[in-house]
Amino acid sequence: MKKNRVFWVVILLLALLAIVLLVTRRSGTIHPRNYRFAVEDTASITRIFMVDKENASVLLERDSSGIWMVNGKYRVRKSGIDMLLETLHKVMPKAPVPLSGRDNVIAELATQAIKVEVYQWVYRINLWDRIRLFPHEKRTSTYYVGGGTPDNRGTFMLMEGSSIPFVVHIVGFRGYIAPRYSSWEEDWRDHTVFNMRLGEIASLSIEFPETPASSFRIENRPEGLRLFSLEEEQQVAGFDTLRVMNLLTAFSDIRFETLVTTMDPRRKDSLLMATPFHIITLAGRDGEVQMMKTYHKPNDMMRLDFDGTPLPYDMDRFYGWLEEEQEFALLQFFVFDRIIRPLDFFLNI
Predict the structure, then answer these.
(1) Which of 174, 171, 139, 168 is nearest to 156 (CA)?
(2) pTM above threshold 0.85
(3) Which of 136, 201, 257, 295 could be bridged to 319 by S-S, CB 3.0 to 4.6 A?
(4) 234 alpha carbon, distance to own chain's centre
(5) Rounded CA gap, 6 and 101, in Å?
(6) CA–CA separation, 149 vs 44, rounded Å?
(7) pLDDT bracket for residue 10 (50, 70, 90)
(8) Is the dihedral of CA 243, 225, 323, 180 positive or negative?
């Protein structure tokens, strides 16, 4: 009996020693905290802060209704935030940077990287993801995003506090993902100009200051559609109701191409003093009003017509004045031609 007891004691001690060695062994391995870039639960993310070496920064955060805002001022472009959240979820380490190139990569990250901070709702008590108590916001990840690898199939990243940079990638995606981490506010702003559905619209007016006879107003009443000539200030009979309905339906998602942030102040002042190209006013049943004035864009490229004469204006793009933001946006005729129609387009003649 005594020998059996000693035997089992020895076995127990050896087992405990083996467990200690397995738990404490670190030689030849890299701790997961050096490459844990991915966020498993992106739905719990509350804020994402990004800043570059020039101190350009953006703070993307969900408001109380769940809408993403950029720097507390503008709605975030949905396609942009969707792609970033997908990236945060799917990004994974491909390999640590080899020792031979590690110093160069770290030096590059020190001068060119974008710092990323991720904040999430977490629980002070979380038992098997079933019992969750005491939620609070916490910064759960901080890392630096550098440029792409020479073969453009990976991106250099470094966790804060680590000395081991990694090449990361997204499985199935060929390219580098650094451009998805932009620290410029303009890259994140929503490009929506008009976004009302047919049932939400109370009225629409489009003025053509250069050709007043083309100006009109549509009223979307419960008893039916009404069309009015703004120049004659009277209701129009015998119009094409299908064309009017298609026009109103198109206002559910109209976007500008890009913000014009580098316009010469003299051109800006000149445009605002000029006669608008169009004045579009969309009123909702809830009292919301979405309005935009448009202006011709000069033919800066000096494009010619078929006779070799310079065109008076750009035939592909024009300007839109965003009243609330006090900025100009670049608009495409390709997009806006379907909502800017003259009055006679709707007449059954």
Answers:
(1) 168
(2) no
(3) 295
(4) 43
(5) 54
(6) 31
(7) low
(8) negative
